[in-house]
Specification:
alpha+beta, 5-stranded antiparallel β-sheet, 3-stranded parallel β-sheet, 13 helices, binds flavin-adenine dinucleotide, binds iron/sulfur cluster
Protein backbone atom coordinates (compact mmCIF):
# COMPACT_ATOMS: atom_id res chain seq x y z
CA UNK A 1 0.00 0.00 0.00
CA UNK A 2 1.28 3.51 -0.81
CA UNK A 3 1.73 6.03 1.99
CA UNK A 4 -1.11 8.49 2.55
CA UNK A 5 -2.17 11.22 4.95
CA UNK A 6 -5.23 10.67 7.11
CA UNK A 7 -7.66 13.12 8.65
CA UNK A 8 -11.06 12.96 10.30
CA UNK A 9 -13.71 15.41 9.19
CA UNK A 10 -16.15 16.94 11.67
CA UNK A 11 -18.80 18.23 9.27
CA UNK A 12 -19.89 17.37 5.72
CA UNK A 13 -18.76 20.77 4.41
CA UNK A 14 -15.37 20.37 6.12
CA UNK A 15 -15.00 16.88 4.61
CA UNK A 16 -15.73 18.18 1.12
CA UNK A 17 -13.37 21.13 1.59
CA UNK A 18 -10.58 18.85 2.88
CA UNK A 19 -10.94 16.55 -0.13
CA UNK A 20 -10.91 19.51 -2.52
CA UNK A 21 -7.80 20.99 -0.84
CA UNK A 22 -5.85 17.79 -1.42
CA UNK A 23 -5.75 16.62 -5.04
CA UNK A 24 -5.70 12.83 -4.98
CA UNK A 25 -7.82 12.70 -1.80
CA UNK A 26 -10.57 10.12 -1.22
CA UNK A 27 -13.26 9.79 1.41
CA UNK A 28 -13.26 6.59 3.41
CA UNK A 29 -16.44 5.17 4.96
CA UNK A 30 -16.72 1.41 5.67
CA UNK A 31 -13.51 0.84 3.70
CA UNK A 32 -14.71 -2.54 2.39
CA UNK A 33 -14.04 -1.59 -1.23
CA UNK A 34 -11.51 1.23 -0.99
CA UNK A 35 -9.03 -0.60 1.25
CA UNK A 36 -9.01 -3.65 -1.05
CA UNK A 37 -8.28 -1.38 -4.00
CA UNK A 38 -5.54 0.44 -2.08
CA UNK A 39 -3.85 -2.81 -1.08
CA UNK A 40 -3.71 -3.79 -4.76
CA UNK A 41 -2.54 -0.25 -5.68
CA UNK A 42 -5.47 0.14 -8.04
CA UNK A 43 -6.44 3.20 -6.02
CA UNK A 44 -3.54 5.23 -4.62
CA UNK A 45 -5.02 8.20 -2.73
CA UNK A 46 -2.45 10.50 -1.20
CA UNK A 47 -4.92 11.69 1.44
CA UNK A 48 -7.84 9.95 3.14
CA UNK A 49 -10.71 11.89 4.67
CA UNK A 50 -12.47 9.67 7.21
CA UNK A 51 -16.18 10.52 7.19
CA UNK A 52 -17.26 7.99 9.83
CA UNK A 53 -17.63 10.64 12.54
CA UNK A 54 -20.18 12.71 10.59
CA UNK A 55 -23.80 12.82 11.75
CA UNK A 56 -25.04 11.10 8.61
CA UNK A 57 -26.06 7.77 10.11
CA UNK A 58 -29.81 8.14 10.58
CA UNK A 59 -32.90 7.31 8.52
CA UNK A 60 -35.48 10.07 8.83
CA UNK A 61 -38.89 10.88 7.42
CA UNK A 62 -38.43 13.42 4.63
CA UNK A 63 -40.55 16.54 4.14
CA UNK A 64 -41.84 15.05 0.87
CA UNK A 65 -43.34 12.01 2.63
CA UNK A 66 -40.51 9.60 1.87
CA UNK A 67 -37.29 8.71 3.67
CA UNK A 68 -33.94 10.43 3.93
CA UNK A 69 -31.22 7.81 4.34
CA UNK A 70 -27.96 9.22 5.71
CA UNK A 71 -24.85 8.42 3.69
CA UNK A 72 -23.33 6.52 6.62
CA UNK A 73 -26.30 4.26 7.37
CA UNK A 74 -24.88 0.73 7.28
CA UNK A 75 -26.39 -1.75 4.82
CA UNK A 76 -27.52 -4.04 7.68
CA UNK A 77 -29.36 -1.23 9.45
CA UNK A 78 -31.02 -0.02 6.26
CA UNK A 79 -32.22 -3.50 5.32
CA UNK A 80 -33.63 -4.06 8.82
CA UNK A 81 -35.36 -0.69 9.23
CA UNK A 82 -39.08 -1.32 9.81
CA UNK A 83 -40.16 1.55 7.50
CA UNK A 84 -37.95 0.22 4.70
CA UNK A 85 -39.20 -3.34 5.16
CA UNK A 86 -42.82 -2.22 5.13
CA UNK A 87 -42.84 0.51 2.46
CA UNK A 88 -39.77 -0.25 0.33
CA UNK A 89 -39.35 -4.04 0.62
CA UNK A 90 -37.50 -4.08 -2.69
CA UNK A 91 -34.65 -2.14 -1.11
CA UNK A 92 -34.44 -4.46 1.85
CA UNK A 93 -34.38 -7.52 -0.42
CA UNK A 94 -31.68 -6.08 -2.67
CA UNK A 95 -29.46 -5.19 0.28
CA UNK A 96 -29.79 -8.65 1.78
CA UNK A 97 -28.86 -10.21 -1.57
CA UNK A 98 -25.52 -8.39 -1.46
CA UNK A 99 -22.15 -9.39 -0.01
CA UNK A 100 -22.23 -11.10 3.41
CA UNK A 101 -23.49 -10.27 6.90
CA UNK A 102 -20.06 -9.05 8.02
CA UNK A 103 -19.63 -6.81 4.99
CA UNK A 104 -23.15 -5.38 5.28
CA UNK A 105 -22.47 -4.50 8.93
CA UNK A 106 -19.63 -2.25 7.77
CA UNK A 107 -20.69 -1.10 4.28
CA UNK A 108 -22.38 2.29 4.06
CA UNK A 109 -25.10 3.63 1.78
CA UNK A 110 -22.75 6.06 -0.02
CA UNK A 111 -19.87 3.59 -0.24
CA UNK A 112 -22.20 0.98 -1.72
CA UNK A 113 -23.30 3.39 -4.45
CA UNK A 114 -19.67 4.17 -5.26
CA UNK A 115 -18.23 0.65 -5.21
CA UNK A 116 -16.13 0.12 -8.30
CA UNK A 117 -16.54 -2.40 -11.09
CA UNK A 118 -15.56 -6.05 -10.61
CA UNK A 119 -14.12 -6.39 -14.14
CA UNK A 120 -11.23 -8.85 -13.66
CA UNK A 121 -8.88 -6.72 -15.80
CA UNK A 122 -9.55 -3.70 -13.58
CA UNK A 123 -8.27 -5.76 -10.65
CA UNK A 124 -5.19 -7.12 -12.45
CA UNK A 125 -2.53 -4.42 -12.65
CA UNK A 126 -0.55 -6.46 -15.22
CA UNK A 127 -3.43 -6.06 -17.70
CA UNK A 128 -4.50 -3.03 -19.75
CA UNK A 129 -7.57 -1.24 -18.41
CA UNK A 130 -8.78 2.21 -19.45
CA UNK A 131 -10.79 2.60 -16.28
CA UNK A 132 -7.77 1.99 -14.03
CA UNK A 133 -5.14 3.56 -16.31
CA UNK A 134 -6.68 5.81 -18.99
CA UNK A 135 -5.25 5.18 -22.44
CA UNK A 136 -3.81 1.76 -21.62
CA UNK A 137 -6.51 -0.12 -23.57
CA UNK A 138 -9.26 -2.52 -22.57
CA UNK A 139 -8.25 -6.10 -21.89
CA UNK A 140 -11.83 -7.28 -21.60
CA UNK A 141 -13.29 -6.42 -24.98
CA UNK A 142 -11.29 -9.05 -26.84
CA UNK A 143 -10.56 -11.01 -23.70
CA UNK A 144 -12.71 -12.68 -21.05
CA UNK A 145 -15.98 -10.77 -20.85
CA UNK A 146 -18.48 -13.18 -19.33
CA UNK A 147 -19.37 -10.86 -16.43
CA UNK A 148 -19.34 -7.64 -18.41
CA UNK A 149 -21.86 -5.29 -20.03
CA UNK A 150 -24.19 -6.21 -22.88
CA UNK A 151 -25.49 -2.68 -23.37
CA UNK A 152 -24.36 0.91 -22.78
CA UNK A 153 -20.65 0.14 -23.20
CA UNK A 154 -18.15 1.84 -25.50
CA UNK A 155 -15.11 0.94 -27.59
CA UNK A 156 -13.04 1.82 -24.50
CA UNK A 157 -14.86 -0.01 -21.71
CA UNK A 158 -17.65 -2.55 -21.18
CA UNK A 159 -17.56 -2.68 -17.38
CA UNK A 160 -20.70 -3.18 -15.33
CA UNK A 161 -21.76 -1.47 -12.16
CA UNK A 162 -21.74 -4.48 -9.81
CA UNK A 163 -23.95 -3.53 -6.85
CA UNK A 164 -27.44 -4.59 -5.79
CA UNK A 165 -28.76 -1.67 -3.72
CA UNK A 166 -28.63 0.84 -6.58
CA UNK A 167 -30.79 -1.42 -8.77
CA UNK A 168 -33.58 -1.20 -6.20
CA UNK A 169 -32.99 2.52 -5.67
CA UNK A 170 -33.37 3.12 -9.40
CA UNK A 171 -36.69 1.29 -9.41
CA UNK A 172 -37.82 3.41 -6.47
CA UNK A 173 -36.78 6.69 -8.18
CA UNK A 174 -34.27 7.61 -5.50
CA UNK A 175 -32.21 10.81 -5.51
CA UNK A 176 -28.62 11.22 -4.31
CA UNK A 177 -27.99 14.31 -2.17
CA UNK A 178 -24.49 15.79 -2.05
CA UNK A 179 -22.50 18.71 -0.71
CA UNK A 180 -19.78 20.34 -2.78
CA UNK A 181 -16.55 21.89 -1.51
CA UNK A 182 -18.10 25.37 -1.78
CA UNK A 183 -20.84 24.25 0.64
CA UNK A 184 -23.59 24.09 -2.01
CA UNK A 185 -25.74 20.98 -2.04
CA UNK A 186 -27.48 19.32 -4.97
CA UNK A 187 -29.77 16.35 -5.63
CA UNK A 188 -29.08 13.97 -8.50
CA UNK A 189 -31.58 11.43 -9.84
CA UNK A 190 -30.08 7.95 -9.59
CA UNK A 191 -30.62 7.48 -13.31
CA UNK A 192 -28.31 10.45 -13.98
CA UNK A 193 -25.75 9.50 -11.34
CA UNK A 194 -23.66 6.89 -13.20
CA UNK A 195 -21.83 7.97 -16.35
CA UNK A 196 -21.71 5.93 -19.55
CA UNK A 197 -18.08 4.91 -20.11
CA UNK A 198 -17.69 6.70 -23.47
CA UNK A 199 -14.07 7.72 -23.93
CA UNK A 200 -13.57 8.51 -20.21
CA UNK A 201 -14.32 5.25 -18.39
CA UNK A 202 -12.14 6.34 -15.46
CA UNK A 203 -15.11 8.51 -14.35
CA UNK A 204 -17.84 6.32 -12.89
CA UNK A 205 -20.26 9.04 -11.75
CA UNK A 206 -21.15 12.70 -12.16
CA UNK A 207 -19.62 13.57 -8.76
CA UNK A 208 -17.03 16.31 -8.91
CA UNK A 209 -13.72 16.40 -7.04
CA UNK A 210 -14.42 16.74 -3.32
CA UNK A 211 -18.19 16.27 -3.65
CA UNK A 212 -19.52 14.30 -0.68
CA UNK A 213 -22.69 12.21 -0.69
CA UNK A 214 -24.74 13.18 2.35
CA UNK A 215 -27.95 11.16 1.83
CA UNK A 216 -30.17 9.14 -0.45
CA UNK A 217 -33.76 10.37 -0.74
CA UNK A 218 -36.64 7.99 -1.29
CA UNK A 219 -39.93 9.41 -2.61
CA UNK A 220 -43.20 8.50 -0.88
CA UNK A 221 -43.95 4.77 -1.02
CA UNK A 222 -45.25 3.56 -4.40
CA UNK A 223 -46.83 0.34 -3.13
CA UNK A 224 -47.30 -2.50 -5.59
CA UNK A 225 -45.67 -5.89 -5.37
CA UNK A 226 -41.90 -5.46 -5.12
CA UNK A 227 -39.54 -8.24 -6.16
CA UNK A 228 -35.74 -8.47 -6.28
CA UNK A 229 -34.18 -11.48 -8.01
CA UNK A 230 -30.46 -12.02 -8.30
CA UNK A 231 -28.78 -14.70 -10.40
CA UNK A 232 -25.16 -15.42 -9.55
CA UNK A 233 -22.59 -18.17 -9.82
CA UNK A 234 -23.00 -19.26 -6.20
CA UNK A 235 -25.73 -18.70 -3.67
CA UNK A 236 -24.02 -16.07 -1.51
CA UNK A 237 -21.01 -13.79 -1.43
CA UNK A 238 -21.12 -13.27 -5.20
CA UNK A 239 -21.98 -10.41 -7.51
CA UNK A 240 -24.96 -10.58 -9.87
CA UNK A 241 -24.62 -12.00 -13.35
CA UNK A 242 -28.07 -10.51 -13.78
CA UNK A 243 -30.42 -9.05 -11.20
CA UNK A 244 -33.95 -7.74 -11.61
CA UNK A 245 -35.85 -5.22 -9.51
CA UNK A 246 -39.54 -5.22 -10.38
CA UNK A 247 -42.45 -3.19 -9.04
CA UNK A 248 -45.83 -4.34 -10.32
CA UNK A 249 -49.08 -2.52 -9.53
CA UNK A 250 -52.53 -4.14 -9.42
CA UNK A 251 -53.42 -2.66 -12.83
CA UNK A 252 -50.38 -4.36 -14.38
CA UNK A 253 -48.29 -1.21 -14.76
CA UNK A 254 -44.91 -0.94 -13.09
CA UNK A 255 -41.17 -0.79 -13.52
CA UNK A 256 -38.38 -3.22 -14.30
CA UNK A 257 -34.69 -2.44 -13.69
CA UNK A 258 -31.90 -4.85 -14.54
CA UNK A 259 -28.51 -5.01 -12.81
CA UNK A 260 -25.29 -6.67 -13.95
CA UNK A 261 -25.80 -5.77 -17.62
CA UNK A 262 -24.54 -2.19 -17.98
CA UNK A 263 -22.51 0.59 -16.36
CA UNK A 264 -25.62 1.49 -14.33
CA UNK A 265 -28.91 -0.09 -13.27
CA UNK A 266 -30.62 -0.45 -16.63
CA UNK A 267 -34.17 0.82 -17.17
CA UNK A 268 -36.19 2.19 -20.09
CA UNK A 269 -39.66 3.73 -19.94
CA UNK A 270 -40.51 2.05 -23.28
CA UNK A 271 -39.76 -1.33 -21.69
CA UNK A 272 -41.98 -0.58 -18.69
CA UNK A 273 -44.80 0.29 -21.09
CA UNK A 274 -44.59 -3.31 -22.38
CA UNK A 275 -45.23 -4.83 -18.94
CA UNK A 276 -48.79 -5.96 -19.75
CA UNK A 277 -47.34 -7.88 -22.76
CA UNK A 278 -44.98 -9.89 -20.56
CA UNK A 279 -41.27 -10.48 -20.06
CA UNK A 280 -40.34 -11.14 -23.68
CA UNK A 281 -41.69 -7.77 -24.80
CA UNK A 282 -40.12 -5.97 -21.84
CA UNK A 283 -36.71 -7.53 -22.47
CA UNK A 284 -36.89 -6.82 -26.20
CA UNK A 285 -37.34 -3.10 -25.47
CA UNK A 286 -34.83 -2.99 -22.62
CA UNK A 287 -32.08 -4.53 -24.70
CA UNK A 288 -32.75 -2.86 -28.04
CA UNK A 289 -29.30 -1.97 -29.42
CA UNK A 290 -27.45 -4.41 -27.15
CA UNK A 291 -23.90 -5.30 -28.18
CA UNK A 292 -23.07 -8.48 -26.28
CA UNK A 293 -19.80 -10.35 -26.73
CA UNK A 294 -19.67 -14.07 -27.48
CA UNK A 295 -18.86 -14.64 -23.79
CA UNK A 296 -21.80 -12.74 -22.36
CA UNK A 297 -24.56 -13.13 -24.96
CA UNK A 298 -26.19 -15.56 -22.51
CA UNK A 299 -27.05 -12.60 -20.27
CA UNK A 300 -29.76 -11.47 -22.70
CA UNK A 301 -31.58 -14.79 -22.32
CA UNK A 302 -30.88 -14.90 -18.61
CA UNK A 303 -32.25 -11.38 -18.14
CA UNK A 304 -35.46 -12.20 -20.00
CA UNK A 305 -35.97 -15.34 -17.91
CA UNK A 306 -35.22 -13.52 -14.68
CA UNK A 307 -37.70 -10.80 -15.60
CA UNK A 308 -40.27 -13.53 -16.35
CA UNK A 309 -39.64 -15.15 -12.96
CA UNK A 310 -39.93 -11.81 -11.15
CA UNK A 311 -43.19 -10.93 -12.92
CA UNK A 312 -44.63 -14.38 -12.18
CA UNK A 313 -43.74 -13.99 -8.50
CA UNK A 314 -45.38 -10.55 -8.47
CA UNK A 315 -48.55 -11.90 -10.09
CA UNK A 316 -48.79 -14.83 -7.68
CA UNK A 317 -48.66 -12.40 -4.79
CA UNK A 318 -51.34 -10.08 -6.17
CA UNK A 319 -53.78 -12.77 -7.42
C1 LIG B 1 -16.21 -10.15 -0.99
C2 LIG B 1 -17.16 -9.05 -1.30
C3 LIG B 1 -18.40 -9.36 -1.83
C4 LIG B 1 -19.31 -8.33 -2.13
N1 LIG B 1 -20.51 -8.65 -2.67
C5 LIG B 1 -21.38 -7.65 -2.98
C6 LIG B 1 -22.64 -7.94 -3.57
O1 LIG B 1 -23.00 -9.10 -3.80
N2 LIG B 1 -23.47 -6.89 -3.86
C7 LIG B 1 -23.10 -5.59 -3.61
O2 LIG B 1 -23.89 -4.69 -3.89
N3 LIG B 1 -21.90 -5.30 -3.07
C8 LIG B 1 -21.04 -6.29 -2.76
N4 LIG B 1 -19.84 -5.98 -2.24
C9 LIG B 1 -19.42 -4.58 -2.18
C10 LIG B 1 -19.76 -3.92 -0.88
O3 LIG B 1 -21.16 -3.77 -0.83
C11 LIG B 1 -19.06 -2.56 -0.92
O4 LIG B 1 -17.68 -2.81 -0.72
C12 LIG B 1 -19.57 -1.61 0.14
O5 LIG B 1 -20.94 -1.35 -0.04
C13 LIG B 1 -18.80 -0.31 0.07
O6 LIG B 1 -19.20 0.52 1.13
P1 LIG B 1 -18.11 1.14 2.12
O7 LIG B 1 -18.81 2.03 3.05
O8 LIG B 1 -17.26 0.08 2.73
O9 LIG B 1 -17.27 2.00 1.06
P2 LIG B 1 -15.73 2.42 1.07
O10 LIG B 1 -14.89 1.25 0.68
O11 LIG B 1 -15.38 3.16 2.30
O12 LIG B 1 -15.77 3.49 -0.13
C14 LIG B 1 -16.12 3.11 -1.44
C15 LIG B 1 -16.01 4.36 -2.31
O13 LIG B 1 -16.99 5.30 -1.91
C16 LIG B 1 -16.39 6.56 -1.62
N5 LIG B 1 -17.20 7.16 -0.56
C17 LIG B 1 -17.56 6.59 0.62
N6 LIG B 1 -18.41 7.39 1.27
C18 LIG B 1 -18.59 8.49 0.50
C19 LIG B 1 -19.39 9.66 0.62
N7 LIG B 1 -20.18 9.88 1.68
N8 LIG B 1 -19.36 10.57 -0.39
C20 LIG B 1 -18.58 10.38 -1.48
N9 LIG B 1 -17.79 9.29 -1.62
C21 LIG B 1 -17.82 8.35 -0.66
C22 LIG B 1 -14.96 6.23 -1.23
O14 LIG B 1 -14.08 7.33 -1.47
C23 LIG B 1 -14.68 5.08 -2.18
O15 LIG B 1 -14.32 5.57 -3.44
C24 LIG B 1 -18.93 -6.98 -1.90
C25 LIG B 1 -17.69 -6.67 -1.35
C26 LIG B 1 -16.80 -7.68 -1.06
C27 LIG B 1 -15.46 -7.30 -0.47
S1 LIG C 1 -14.08 -3.30 -19.46
FE1 LIG C 1 -13.52 -1.35 -18.52
S2 LIG C 1 -12.87 -1.97 -16.49
FE2 LIG C 1 -12.75 -3.80 -17.79
S3 LIG C 1 -10.68 -3.84 -18.74
FE3 LIG C 1 -11.99 -2.75 -20.12
S4 LIG C 1 -11.65 -0.62 -19.52
FE4 LIG C 1 -11.02 -1.84 -17.79
Amino acid sequence: MKAFEFERADSPAAAAAAAARNPGAKFIAGGTNLLDLMKLQIETPTHLVDVNGLALDTIDASDAGGLRIGALVRNTDLAADSRVRKDYPLLSRALLAGASGQLRNRATTAGNLLQRTRCPYFYDTDQPCNKRLPGSGCGAIKGYSRQLAVIGGSADCIATYPGDMAVALRALDAMVETVRPDGQSRSIALDDFYLAPGSTPQRDTVLEAGELITAVLLPPPVGGRQIYRKVRDRASYAFALVSVAAIVQRDGSGRVVVGGVAHKPWQRDAADAELPQGAKAVAARLFEGATPTEDNRFKLVLAERTIAAALAEAQEATS
